[in-house]
From TrEMBL:
The keyword DNA repair applies. It holds the Pfam family Fapy_DNA_glyco. This is Formamidopyrimidine-DNA glycosylase. It catalyses: 2'-deoxyribonucleotide-(2'-deoxyribose 5'-phosphate)-2'-deoxyribonucleotide-DNA = a 3'-end 2'-deoxyribonucleotide-(2,3-dehydro-2,3-deoxyribose 5'-phosphate)-DNA + a 5'-end 5'-phospho-2'-deoxyribonucleoside-DNA + H(+); Hydrolysis of DNA containing ring-opened 7-methylguanine residues, releasing 2,6-diamino-4-hydroxy-5-(N-methyl)formamidopyrimidine. Residues 242-276 form the FPG-type domain. Belongs to the FPG family. Its cofactor is Zn(2+). It comes from Williamsia limnetica. InterPro entries: DNA_glyclase_Znf_dom_DNA_BS, FPG_cat, FPG_N, H2TH_FPG, Ribosomal_uS13-like_H2TH, Znf_DNA_glyclase/AP_lyase, Znf_FPG/IleRS. PROSITE patterns: FPG_CAT, ZF_FPG_1, ZF_FPG_2. PANTHER family: FORMAMIDOPYRIMIDINE-DNA GLYCOSYLASE (PTHR22993:SF9).
Length: 291
């Protein structure tokens, strides 16, 4: 799933190519991805792309017209969505309801320029909204503060208000926006914290380390992805991960075997030596530390 660093990199990449270009046409191959109907997607044709930015893990493409306010195209790529820029887009609209990965195509600038919004796999969770105010999107309006915008004291206050496990706190977008499963694994490994540590029980020293690590891991990832073509971002993300998706491999810090806890539709990875004092977390749905 694209998280804050990848969405930021996609936004920067597309902004550098599309800002200032007119939208010539929008093709929708999957009406199911559209979560709003007013304004209609056809209203984007003829408008100018003003900027491309990010709110949490949401891509926000802001367009302007001649006689009204902005209209925003908001995209949540979810688990298997992606955006692909091309200078050679086919002029033939993708077939509605087809089995291909294309959900939405935006033609902008010169003929052939634009991007496809795609989704792989059978679980279709990609979502697109077209709104005059991003706050009209409930999932955007209820986002917590951005992970990179929090001060240390604000971060500590958020941790103190919940008795949840720190892994849950970091990935709850209503609490802190932008961090997902992969980077929370990396943050907790670097900070040497168990995913099952209770947030409100962290010491001041642990909070200091965790806060600094959130910034170091996310900004480090943004730095690695900066300037990369969108097509290469997934590979660059994987190459920078130390424990996430590395089950059974040696921890690059201590050499212990990276372990996994699996749930119905997701899993996370950790190092017992670095994070749990050598204890192995039970790999079952209601996981708890083995005693």
């Amino acid at each position: 799933m694209p998280e804050l660093p990848e969405v930021q990199a996609i936004a920067d990449y597309v902004d550098g190519r599309a800002a200032g270009l007119p939208i010539r046409r929008v093709d929708v191959a999957s009406l199911a991805v559209l979560k709003t109907a007013d304004p209609p997607y056809t209203a984007l044709a003829g408008r100018m792309i003003d900027r491309v930015g990010r709110v949490g893990k949401y891509l926000v493409i802001t367009t302007t017209g001649t006689d009204d306010g902005p209209i925003h195209l908001i995209i949540h790529l979810s688990r298997a969505g992606w955006l692909r820029w091309s200078d050679n887009l086919s002029p033939t609209p993708p077939r509605p309801g087809g089995k291909g990965p294309i959900a939405l195509r935006v033609h902008c600038g010169l003929p052939g320029e634009g991007f496809d919004v795609t989704e792989a796999g059978t679980q279709k969770r990609l979502a697109v909204w077209i709104v005059r105010d991003p706050a009209e999107v409930e999932r955007v309006a209820t986002l917590g503060p951005d992970a990179l915008a929090l001060t240390r004291d604000e971060f500590a206050a958020l941790l103190a208000t919940t008795g949840a496990r720190i892994k849950t706190v970091l990935t709850d977008q209503r609490t802190i926006a932008g961090i997902g499963n992969a980077y929370s694994d990396e943050i907790l490994h670097t900070a040497k914290l168990s995913p099952f540590a209770t947030s409100k029980n962290l010491s001041d020293e642990q909070i200091d380390v965790l806060y600094a690590t959130v910034h170091a891991v996310l900004t480090g990832a943004i730095g690695r992805l900066e300037g990369q073509e969108v097509a290469r971002l997934k590979g660059e993300k994987r190459s920078g991960l130390r424990v996430h998706a590395r089950t059974g491999m040696p921890c690059p810090v201590c050499g212990d075997t990276v372990r996994e806890v699996s749930f119905t539709d997701r899993s996370f990875q950790y190092c017992p030596t670095c994070q749990t004092g050598g204890k192995v977390l039970a790999d079952r749905r209601m996981s708890r530390l083995l005693k």
